[in-house]
Write a structure and sequence with these properties.
single chain, mainly alpha
Length: 451
Amino acid sequence: MTHSQEQTLGPVGVPDPVDGTVSPPGMGRVATASFIGTVIEFYDFGIYGTAAALVFPEVFFPALGPAAGITASFAALGVAFVARPFGSLLFGHFGDRLGRKKTLIATMLLMGLSTILVGCMPTADQIGVAAPVLIVMLRVLQGLAAGGEFAGAVLFSSEHAPKGKRGFWAMFPNFGGGGAITLANLTFLLTTLFMSDDTFITWGWRVPFLASFLLVIVGLWIRLRIDETPVFKNQVARSGPSRLPFFEALKHQPRQVLLATGTVMIGFALTYIGGTYLVSYGTTVLKLPRAFVLSMAMVGGITISIGVVLGAVLSDRIGRRWVIVGAASVAVVWALVLFPLLDLGSRGVFAIGVPVTLFLSGIATGPQGAFLSELFHTRYRYTAAGLSYSLAGMLGGGVPPLIAPSIIDSFGSFSFGCILAGVCLISLICVLAVGETRQLDLDRATVDPVA
């Protein structure tokens, strides 16, 4: 079935009330398959980030002391971001050669099993220095899986979707990210409310990690029931799969890989500052109650989901470029005022700061699934989109939370706000340089230049 044939399925599709675009049958199942995979990915990353802020310094890095323990915990978080580009190359290679479906099943299994093993991990008091070493190794496996998961999930949705609603359908992987933030903080909030601090530190923190098992079972059941994307099938039938997708991507579209990396950084930076680092900042620096901080992070997960939907729908109307430009422009200013506001120490201000940060992240992230899919040729799309996304995650999501404690301790919180604003500015410049992608056809036989 070709891309043009997909759009003739009007009698059994769902017409859009605004533009009349018809979605092919089965798009709900495709979207669910993409959604559940990134729920698992972001849930697993999210619960580690929350645990790194609340308990891992004491459980796995007690010998370093409180400040250095937090830095070490977030350094282990950053290890997964370093591993992500390698996961993108590994799973992208197989995704471009063997197909999206088989590869996505593999990434889900690896991510889920790694997270469950974190929940089973002995503490430093039990096995000494081996505990943090093993945690880092599991974080590497999580990073490899995450590097292959998101791009595949995005392509799975976008390569099934009709052109006029590609932004909407391709946003479901990012929508899963917002749901995961809410779910991750909810599980930690429940353990906080129903356990004493001693119980939570002794074994309660393990519950969210072990609960990942249920998500993996559901995700596998859904993904096994979905067919391969028609766009990938067309590519294989037309000219066969790429033998070396990474080298083809670097040969034909190296500029787009770099600009896409810069464009996507803003979503990672705002998400991991708003959804992860501010949990630590709120409890350790502002001395706010843990239950309140987790509640606000959970609300932030809801607002990022709202932002993702809004950004995706708008991108189908006005284009991917201008939605990201608008979000990045506001985020530059917001980053400069965020920490001076938070440092007032007010619960009300914190209750605004976290959700607004994550809402801006959602707006910027909403169009990114379609944007990455449209930017690259089918022969190496999985590899190129995954590499761009993972590099952005390493630079935008891994580095800021890692350097935030030392920067704030040495130079003050406003200095870190300036760094965050700089990341948002880089994304603004890059998306302006890339140009609009909404008009491009995913099932194209040649590489289209992008202004």
